[in-house]
Write a structure and sequence with these properties.
With 254 residues, the protein is mainly α. It is built from twelve helices and no strands. The longest helix has 25 residues.
Length: 254
């Protein structure tokens, strides 16, 4: 019973931050399963991707869409890219030593965090997606996010959002809504299949996490829409920096 309650709480927190920042939630789920339940990195990755396979952020996406913070065309192309890339990332992860995977994950999070903290751009001059023929950029963002999604068990939002803000000049709120829109479809299915075949899969555990995400994501989106975009970026940067630093340090200790 303790395990299921813990999973539900992890899902709630992941959902809250998912709706708030536009991330899939894996950046919370994976480290939480490792720290609180002692699961391996690879099993945590499999559970996280399985939980995120369901449309757990649908209420958050609806909330963002009503405020016109979702670009459906960009979201669709990113979703396609994730579907293409996630299997390759998962294939690499299941054959990689867990400690090395953890350290690489930590370095990745630190890089994203620093980008958020030092960036002063607010995405006010959004690039015209159709006019500038940036479809291939959206697809590339999705493929890259998909590879990291399969590699680290994350939804991909930690890659998608900085790319949308930095490259396509999206407002952070629109980047968050578009990211959640891209992650709404079962884009992580190829990665889940790979983890399942490797024995790193538990549908019951993933179900409890998914339930928590559904509840938490709506409230996270509700809060984020009302806050200044600059504040959201700084909070997210600090949040990722702390997690990334911890992963790098504990990786060396072990």
């Amino acid at each position: 019973m303790f395990i299921f309650i813990t999973l539900l709480i992890v899902g709630l927190v992941a959902g809250l931050l998912s709706g708030f920042f536009g991330i899939g939630g894996g950046v919370i789920i994976v480290p939480s399963l490792i720290f609180f339940l002692g699961y391996s990195q690879k099993l945590s990755n499999g559970i996280s991707l399985s939980a995120l396979l369901l449309p757990v952020s649908i209420f958050a996406v609806i909330k963002y869409a009503k405020s016109n913070f979702v670009d459906k065309k960009v979201a669709a192309l990113i979703a396609l890219g994730i579907f293409i890339g996630v299997y390759g990332g998962a294939k690499i992860a299941v054959s990689m030593p867990s400690i090395l995977l953890k350290q690489i994950y930590g370095i990745f999070l630190l890089y994203i965090a620093i980008k958020y903290l030092v960036s002063k751009k607010e995405g006010k001059n959004e690039v015209d997606f159709v006019g500038h023929k940036l479809r291939f950029i959206a697809l590339f963002i999705g493929i890259f996010a998909g590879i990291l999604s399969g590699l680290f068990g994350i939804g991909g939002g930690a890659v998608i959002i900085p790319a949308l803000v930095g490259i396509m000049k999206f407002n952070p709120k629109k980047a968050a809504g578009t990211s959640l829109g891209a992650l709404l479809l079962p884009v992580g299915l190829p990665g889940v299949i790979k983890y399942y075949n490797a024995g790193f899969f538990d549908i019951k555990l993933a179900g409890f996490v998914a339930l928590g995400i559904v509840i938490g994501a709506y409230f996270g989106a509700h809060i984020a829409i009302k806050l200044p975009s600059k504040l959201i970026k700084k909070i997210f940067g600090i949040f990722l920096f702390i997690i990334g630093l911890d992963f790098v340090i504990t990786g060396f200790i072990h």
